[in-house]
Each structure stands twice: as C-alpha cells, then as structure tokens.
Amino acid sequence: MSRIELRAVTKQIGQKTVLRDVNLKIEQGQFVGIIGPNGSGKTTLLHTISGVEQIESGEINIDDRAVSSYRRRELARKLAVLQQDGIPNIAYPVEDVIEMGRFPFLDWLGRDHSPDIREVMDRIMTRLDLTSLAGRPVDELSGGQRQRVALGKVMAQQPQVLLLDEPTTYLDIRYQLQFMELVSEWQKDENLTVVAVMHDLNLASMYCDRLVVLQEGRIAAEGTPHEILTPDTLHSVFEVRSALAEHPDSGVPQIMLRRKEQL
Ligand SMILES: Nc1ncnc2c1ncn2[C@@H]1O[C@H](COP(=O)(O)OP(=O)(O)OP(=O)(O)O)[C@@H](O)[C@H]1O
C-alpha cells in the first residue's frame, strides 16, 4: 500500500497544461524532494496532493482513497502543509499560534479532548526550542524563529504526511540547516512521510531519500540523489554546467556550479 499515489494526473490552469500524465508513488516514511525549474509545476503538484487544487483527469489517492473524498478535518489529521512563509506576521503569541494546529481535533465548542494534549504541546515547544518565546507575539520574531513556529503548528496537527513548499527560502544558512534537521528528526521519530519542493539541490541531496524532477509539468526523472544529481541531468533540466563532489560526512552528491567559459 502506498501512502500517496498519483495515477495519470493532468492539471490545466486556463489554457495551460501545468501537469501532464504524472504517475508517482510515495511510501510511508519516505522523504521525497520535488525539484525542477521555475514554472515546471512543483507547487501545483503539491496543491493537487493536498486537495487544494482539483485535477482534470487521473487519480490522487491518500491511503488508497481519493483525496477529493476526504472531509477537510479528516484530511487535516493525515496531511499538513507548510509554505515558504509558514505563518502570517500577526501579533498572536507563539503558543497560541502553535495551538491553532490542533483545529482538526477540536469539537464544535473548540475544545480539545485529546488526553495527552499538554504533553504534546510541551514536547513541541521543547523540541523546537520555543519555550522561552511562548508568550512573545509572532510579529516580533526573526524569520528563522517564525518558521520554527510554523513548523510547531504543523507538528501540533500530528499529521502522517507533511508537504513542504520551499520551506527554507527566506532563511539564512544556519536556519536552513536547523529547519531541515528538525524536519528530519521528526520524520525519523514518527516515520512521517515528507514531500518537499526544494530549490536548493545540495540541501535536497542531504535530506531526501528520493528526488522527483519535474520539467514542463512532466516527471523527467526520479531516483536517489546519486542517480539524479548528475552533470548531464542538471544540464538537460536546468541548462547549467556543473561538477560534483561527495559530501564529506555522508557521501551524497553536492553540486558545484560552473561559470560560463570566460572568453
Ligand atoms: N493561478 C494561476 N494562473 C495562471 N497560471 C498559473 C497559475 N498558477 C500557476 N500557473 C502556471 O502554472 C505553471 C506551474 O506553476 P507552479 O507554481 O506550479 O510552478 P513551480 O515549479 O512551483 O514554479 P516556481 O519554482 O517558480 O515556484 C507556471 O507556468 C505558472 O505560470
């Protein structure tokens, strides 16, 4: 059984075919990176998996059931989405914003009956090093801290699948690494399935088990970082020249871009 399965998915936006005949299976516990040039359909693919965007033809199943057949709360208990700028710049305290992630579990009076809710919240605050910031308004935090709060909010949702849309775009390298480490730890502890749209191919290589390359709405290639991140593939997909090095800790490929030949 695949946790997520796309069969012959085609998506049209206006006159444009944005996804073409996409077939993809993602198993429970995998960390999958979606990579590809600007406009290749990565975000649209994530939106179709999350049920936000309807598809023209094909099937998208989560746990062998069409994503379109889930009620909103039911889907939110399985699947959470985190965007580039995960939470708006609002004056709500950190802890309240994280608790908003509990919405799929609230009854009609807004009460959370989960017996271990305090423990869940404390664990999240500690793990994300947010305890000392619990009462601080979110709009007073740095971008890196705010993205940690956004991660806390989706953790509070206790999903089995996490969809990330370029989550490290606005972060400096320290916070990029910190964010990816936190997601990776959570993924391993809970056997979470992660599908992440990523522009930074070196980070993608360090964290993803598998990479899916989108090009003009089609899957151009998929495989391990070793299989995908080759100078030939990078040239045909991104039109860049590159050389590869091995990461000194894990041996995964790391890309060095080459400049245009100097005349
Ligand atoms: N609301 C929309 N109206 C019209 N065209 C759209 C809309 N949303 C997306 N598109 C088009 O669909 C294509 C795929 O967009 P999408 O955002 O999925 O690509 P992407 O690979 O995530 O791009 P990027 O890397 O730039 O974020 C693009 O050509 C885009 O212009």
Automatic annotation (TrEMBL):
SUPFAM superfamilies: P-loop containing nucleoside triphosphate hydrolases (SSF52540)
Alphabetically ordered keywords of this record: ATP-binding, Nucleotide-binding, Transport
Protein name, per record: ABC transporter ATP-binding protein
ABC transporter domain location: 4-241
A Pfam family that the UniProt record links to this protein: ABC_tran
InterPro entries: AAA+_ATPase, ABC_transporter-like_ATP-bd, ABC_transporter-like_CS, P-loop_NTPase
Organism: Paenibacillus zeisoli
The organism's place on the tree of life at top rank: Bacteria
Gene3D superfamilies the UniProt entry points to: P-loop containing nucleotide triphosphate hydrolases (3.40.50.300)
GO molecular function: ATP binding; ATP hydrolysis activity
